[in-house]
Amino acid sequence: MFLCRKVWFVRTKGLRISPRKVAIVADAIRNLPLDEALNILPTMEKRGAYVIGKSLNSAIANAVNNATLSRETFRIKRVEVTEGAFIKRFRPSTRGRVHPYKRRASNLRIILEGEKK
User: How far from chain centre, in Å, is Cα 85?
Assistant: First the structure.
């Protein structure tokens, strides 16, 4: 049986969470084995953990079904969090003024590495 390393990735765009908040969770699971990362994510009390968990499960399902990769050999090779589009909002202030702020969004890219069945 011939085994070769394969790379599979998932991209999630337009997450309505600040990139800084998602990056905290991404740093915690980076370079971990898959089972360990899946055990850590539900116990984290961060909003980004839920989103990363959903994206990670999607990447696993796609890699197993579409690329016929072996789930037991998966490893999280890289997790990238970038800044997505933002929405400009304004907060009312005194004397008819406004204070602008940005409602930030983020883009997430998870790269898995595994062996072919």
Answer: 16
